[in-house]
Design a protein that fits this description.
heterodimer, A: 2 domains, two-stranded antiparallel sheet, 69% helix, B: alpha/beta, Rossmann fold, 2 domains, four-stranded antiparallel β-sheet, 14 strands, 32% helix
């Protein structure tokens, strides 16, 4: 036991002390937050980011006279001109666009280059709003009556629990499940290959024989797996802490941006003098409801399940990665053995984004969340939705632990022979033989 | 100190060790010899408990070999290796602790050895920054730092220049004098003659020869002598009690390599030669370990 701790310490500290570890640990949250912030910024400012466009308007229908107001960086200038002459002079007139509305209302938007879809859409919705209001007025329909008639029906997803009916908050479950599944998928690869590299390093540098004259191969393998696992845990905790700190800072900036945008939107609506149906979700309410959705997920339950599946998922796969490392002389030879390891992972991850997340309680999903090689990802998709029966969760965890013990035992038997084999190209047949070698 | 009894080790397609029994005495230097693939490494791995035998047993000071003996054995494998990216001092401390030393004790002894081998300035260097000879010295320290009762050295002098090989040889002899038993596996027969008290020779998974070096060499005497004389070439054609194996001229006269016929004695040779020439030297040729090795192994084929 004392020796395993020594091995764990070495595996942990040599990795944590590396410059690349610090770099990745600090850079990933910065890059992640930076990317999110950039996306948010662009989304908020997309209309302000372009130049101001000036549009020359020739309105032959008479429907829109002085009703188009400047908005979204677009300025309208009305002209009384012959359309043919205007089109001819357009290139020299100094306008970005020429909007020609004939009596038929089949409007044309002309530009020197191809008109941007953003501007086209803005112009279109502005015209439609005005035209609709006028048609309603012509038909003697009160726009308020219409708005109330058009009001959509929301279907609210509810969940019956012992403490009564609750909001189901499906979208938060969806998001949390996918994030958890992705993190597990990603970390199994990341840290599993680190274990494999460590094994190959010991074999290639030939220190292995010195070490296993002091400790049992199984102790070395276990020490390495646990050591790298702790590195992974450290990195995850640092990432979560850094991401939370950074996102609080960035989040407050983004929220400011959202407020600005909301004000603009309300101004625009007022300017148009009419209400767009269904647009009355106040952003503050939206934020609130997101928060409420996230809070609806049982945090302690989900986090403990995540840690369990992360830990045992890592253990089950890293033992296999260690066995692969022991069977080869260099990293380039690992390819043929990697496929059967990575296949169930990729398979489950791909399915998790469609089949499982849409039908978390289907027989198929239940099966995937039971099989030890697929359960870490599959179960983490199901858990945020709630409603995983306790017996299923218990059985899945039990199977995963048993699967871990079994794979580690199998991997250990291959490992102890593999680390001493040099220059022999390992095949599956060879691995099977190693497994049956006596001590 | 170490009794190896009827060890059998079977791999899938071949038998690495076939009923091998060896006794190694306390405080001696023991040579484990044999051509490549004879089973030496398999036997060494069994003694180190890296692998186990299929049958047979190994006794360490009369006790059946178990995990508690690991800290009393020091092993220098033929294929040397240390962590390339780890600092050398830290690495020695790690390996010493794996052998059961406390950190303080390991540090104290490592400093002692680094000073003794004049490598203390490399403490913070990574292995990949060192020359091969330097790495070997560090590896030697890792092998002996826990003061093992049994040292197993597989080709300990490869990779050393003659000066450093001499230093390491003297360190090994000093440890031996202090009581360590040494198992020494090598192909260099001249160092076997120089260092080893006893040997065992493995060939094709079997032990084919063992015993004291002196006894073995004596046993392989076959009545071959070197005889030198001065003056003219003597005529040895008429009913000599020996057979001439080779004849060569020297500055003063001639040198004969001869083998005495069965039933004749050294005195018969002298009596035969005395009237014919002036003998300056007569010496028995005791076969070198190299000759013993080649002779035994090729005979086994």
């Amino acid at each position: 036991m004392h020796k395993i701790i020594l091995i764990i310490k070495r595996e942990y500290f040599t990795r944590v002390k590396k410059k690349s570890f610090l770099l990745v640990t600090f850079l990933v949250p910065v890059l992640f937050i930076g990317m999110m912030a950039l996306i948010g910024y662009v989304a908020v400012k997309q209309n302000e980011m372009g130049d101001k466009k000036k549009i020359e308007v020739i309105d032959e229908s008479g429907w829109f006279a002085n009703k188009l107001n400047a908005a979204n960086n677009i300025e309208y200038v009305y002209k009384q001109e012959d359309p043919a002459a205007a089109k001819k002079n357009f290139l020299n007139a100094g306008y970005d666009y020429l909007l020609y509305i004939p009596a038929s209302l089949n409007a044309q938007l002309i530009s020197e280059n191809k008109p941007s879809t953003g501007v086209t859409n803005n112009v279109e919705s502005a015209l439609n709003a005005i035209a609709q209001a006028r048609r309603l007025a012509d038909a003697h329909i009160d726009s308020a009556v219409l708005a109330s008639a058009q009001k959509g029906i929301d279907v609210q997803g509810l969940q019956m629990t012992e403490s009564g009916i609750k909001n189901a908050h499906v979208y938060a479950s969806y998001g949390v499940g996918l994030v958890c599944a992705f993190l597990i998928y990603f970390s199994l690869f990341l840290y599993g290959t680190q274990v494999m590299r460590g094994v190959i390093e010991e074999k290639v540098s030939r220190i292995i024989e010195v070490i296993i004259s002091s400790v049992k191969p199984f102790q070395l393998m276990l020490g390495k797996i646990i050591g790298v696992g702790l590195v992974g845990l450290t990195q995850f905790i640092m990432w979560i802490a850094l991401t939370l700190t950074l996102s609080t800072v960035v989040g407050s900036l983004v929220q400011k941006g959202v407020k600005v945008r909301t004000e603009q939107a309300t101004q625009m609506q007022k300017a148009m003098g009419q209400q767009t149906p269904k647009a009355d979700v106040h952003p503050d309410n939206m934020m609130g409801s997101i928060m409420e959705e996230v809070e609806s997920i049982p945090v302690v339950y989900t986090v403990s399940c995540f840690l369990f599946y992360f830990l045992f998922g890592y253990l089950i796969y890293s033992a296999l990665f260690a066995a692969v490392g022991s069977a080869v002389d260099s990293e380039t030879e690992t390819q043929q053995f990697m496929l059967p390891i990575t296949l169930p992972l990729i398979f489950t991850f791909a399915l998790s984004q469609s089949v499982i997340v849409n039908n978390p309680d289907s027989t198929f999903s239940v099966w995937l969340s039971m099989i030890p090689f697929t359960s870490p990802i599959a179960m983490m998709i199901r858990i945020p939705f709630g409603g995983v029966p306790a017996w299923q969760l218990g059985l899945s965890m039990l199977l995963l632990v048993l699967g871990f013990l079994f794979t580690t035992w199998v991997a250990g038997r291959i490992y102890r022979v593999g680390i001493l084999m040099y220059g022999k190209k390992a095949t599956y047949k060879e691995l099977a033989k190693w497994f049956f070698y006596s001590e | 100190m170490l009794s190896i009894r009827h060890i059998v080790k079977q791999y899938a397609n071949h038998r690495a060790l076939d009923d091998v029994s060896i006794e190694i005495e306390q405080g001696k230097v023991f040579g484990l010899l044999g051509p490549n693939g004879a089973g030496k490494t398999s036997l060494i791995r069994i003694i180190n408990q890296i692998t186990g035998p299929d049958s047979g047993e190994v006794l360490f000071n009369g006790q059946k070999l178990d995990q508690s003996h690991i800290s009393r054995i020091g092993y220098l494998p033929e294929e040397r290796g240390l962590y390339k990216k780890m600092e050398i001092g830290e690495q020695i401390l790690y390996l010493a602790q794996l052998k059961g030393l406390s950190l303080q004790e390991a540090r104290k002894r490592a400093k002692y050895w680094f000073q003794k081998l004049e490598i203390e300035s490399w403490w913070n260097k990574k292995i990949e920054e060192l020359s091969k000879g330097m790495q070997q010295k560090a590896q030697f320290v890792a092998t002996v730092i826990h003061e093992p009762d049994l040292l197993i050295l597989d080709e300990p002098f490869t990779g050393f220049d003659p000066v450093n090989a001499e230093i390491i040889k003297n360190e090994i002899l000093e440890l031996n004098k202090k009581g360590a038993t040494v198992i020494f596996s090598t192909h260099r027969m001249e160092s076997v003659e120089e260092l080893c008290d006893s040997i065992a020779l493995l060939n094709l998974s079997k032990k084919i020869l063992d015993g004291k070096v002196k006894t073995i060499r004596n046993a392989y005497r076959n009545g071959t002598y070197i005889l030198e004389y001065e003056g003219e070439k003597a005529d040895t054609s008429a009913s000599a009690p020996f057979e001439v194996l080779s004849e060569a001229a020297t500055d003063e006269g001639y040198q004969l390599k001869l083998r005495i016929n069965a039933g004749s004695k050294v005195n018969d040779v002298l009596q035969y030669m005395l009237p014919r020439t002036a003998i300056s030297k007569l010496e028995e040729v005791i076969p070198t370990m190299n000759e013993v090795f080649i002779q035994t192994v090729s005979k086994a084929k």
